[in-house]
Amino acid sequence: MDLDTLRHSCSHVMAQAVKELWPEAKLGIGPSIEDGFYYDFDKIEPFSDEDLAKIEKLMRQIIAKDERFLRQELSKPEAEELFKKLHEDYKTELIHGIPDVEVSIYKTGDKFLDLCRGPHIESTGQIKAFKLLSVAGAYWHGIETNPMLQRIYGTCFETQNELDSYLKNLEEAKKRDHRKLGPALGLFDIYHEEAGAGLVFYHPKGALLRTLIENYEKEEHLKRGYEMVITPHIMRSELWQTSGHYDYYKENMYIFKIEDKEFVLKPMNCPGHILLYKSQTRSYKDLPIRFFELGTVYRHEKAGVLHGLLRVRGFTQDDAHIFCLPEQLKPEIKGVIDFVFDTMKVFGFNEVSIELSTRPEKYIGSEEDWEKATVALEESLKEKSLAYEVNIGDGAFYGPKIDIKLKDALNRKWQCATIQCDFALPKRFGLAYVDSDGKEKQPIMLHRVLLGSIERFIGALIEHYAGAFPAWLSPVQAVVIPVKPGFEDYVNAIKGKFTEQAIRFTVDDRNETLDKRIRAAEIEKIPYILVVGAREAQNETVSVRKRKEGDLGSKKLEEFTGQIKLQIKNRQ
Ligand SMILES: [Zn+2]
Ligand SMILES: [Zn+2]
């Protein structure tokens, strides 16, 4: 059975129940979505939790009756007439917008009718496992000047087991929500009223985590033949006019005037890297040139779409631009793919999903260039034996691209790496290199990010690990807990050792019970808890408790230090 069809059918059953309970409610639309379905209703009184329970109960009755989904074709005027009579204004409006002469409707039960293209399951009895989840406001057609409807979200699976495990994941996801865990673990906050919304403040532990990520990136990029560059945060409007951002992206840009000159707070790093490329004459022998920058960009996002670290107004990209010869395109793409996979592994993500987006209807550049670039992207994926989906016509107007999304511990996808070919910017800026025949030619430009927005990636990382980072990424790697006062000399010796070996530690010698202090360290998700008493001081050992694994017993301080150092070195 097709899950989308099942879920969409379940949305009909929900709407049928709502109409039976509140006949005055008007129907919006009710599609299936990635994890379930929704239906929009125009109803004055908001739906309460008790209402959702009532709706669910009635849905179960409709399912028990095993009512058939009956399809009927009508002419447009007939359908309009019908839904007008039912006072379904939104449906009438939808019918108006349908270009065909005939429309189809579906009926279930005695009187529930829905305008719908279908397909549907045969009868309501085929729905075995569903759950209504939440209610949210949603503007009709998503336009703020339209009426606000109430959207009920639900989900539906073929079996109760699948539904149960989905709901369990959902619970787990709530616990892992980076918007709660991040501030709770002292990593960041985004809630300074007087600073403005969507701006991230890293606290010391979060700044440390980010620095560790950035250090990995710098080291690896240099190893792989990238050159690090740093470009300004503000640049004049003229530059953004040349790049096209001023015309196509203006509503997302912060633009301001100083002494008659207009400046833009950079929303992207590409134009800066292009100016660097243009700063000297380039020969074919110089290519490929790979400029890498941890580039902080600012984009105006509407307040309504801001979301934790995932959608913010200022963020840093691990951004690189590769300028290359046509014959270098494929090896460069493959190099980036390898880099993406190596990086994902380092951060503990083992599963990805890949999408290739091809030429849209409106595009610039020659068909031949598009073909070459698309083939280069596609062949690179094939030669790496990677499975991918093709999104036909979904590329940007200036070039095709590969998106690599990573899957976290709860099997959710996170947008991360992008590899994009670009024919527009090299042309707009008149980029050139001198070829072996002495002629000036236009290089190919690749835009690519590995993690994408570092902020979003940190959000993903927090939820993937539920805040329990591997030792190499943990802001605090070990906590030393003396069982009682009196072992200061030995604790000082441990402090000296850890400081010298660059192990990040704290000492918890508060006047609290041992259990309480161990519990506090567990809540902080510190990988190692080292308990120290008379025996440990005597033998120069530590009693080690490892997160998740529990009590590892007593270890020589020297041995523990060696082990954790190795773990950190191996990025574990
Ligand atoms: Zn339908
Ligand atoms: Zn770019």
What is shown here, in short?
The chain is α+β, with helices and mostly antiparallel strands.
Major sheet size, sense and barrel closure = 8 strands, mixed
Average residue pLDDT: 95
Going by helix content, strand content and strand pairing, the class is alpha+beta
The level of helicity is 25-40%
User: What's the N-to-C terminus distance?
Assistant: 42 Å
Overall geometric form: globular
Would you report the number of β strands? Answer: 28
Count of DSSP H/I helices: 18
Strand content: 25-35%
> Which ligands does the model contain, each kind named once?
zinc ion
What Rg, in angstroms, do the CA atoms define? 29 Å
Lateral arrangement of strands in the main beta sheet: 11-15-16-23-20-19-17-18
Q: Which residues sit in consecutive blocks of at least 5 with pLDDT less than 50? A: none
Note the topology.
Layout: H1 3-21, E1 26-27, E2 32-33, E3 36-42, H2 49-64, E4 70-75, H3 76-85, H4 89-97, E5 102-108, E6 112-115, E7 129-139, E8 148-157, H5 160-176, H6 178-184, E9 188-189, E10 201-202, H7 204-223, E11 227-228, E12 234-236, H8 237-243, H9 245-248, E13 254-258, E14 261-265, H10 270-278, E15 289-298, E16 314-324, H11 329-346, E17 351-357, H12 367-383, E18 389-391, E19 401-407, E20 413-422, H13 424-428, E21 433-434, E22 440-441, E23 444-453, H14 454-465, E24 478-482, H15 488-500, E25 505-507, H16 514-523, E26 528-532, H17 534-539, E27 541-546, E28 550-556, H18 557-569
Parallel strand pairs: 11-15, 17-18, 24-25, 24-26
Antiparallel strand pairs: 1-3, 2-3, 3-8, 4-5, 5-6, 7-8, 9-10, 12-14, 13-14, 15-16, 16-23, 17-19, 19-20, 20-23, 21-22, 26-27, 27-28
Helix pairs in contact: 1-2, 3-4, 6-14, 11-12
Bound molecules: zinc ion (ZN) (2 copies).
Residues 268-270, 321, 447 line the site of one zinc ion (ZN).
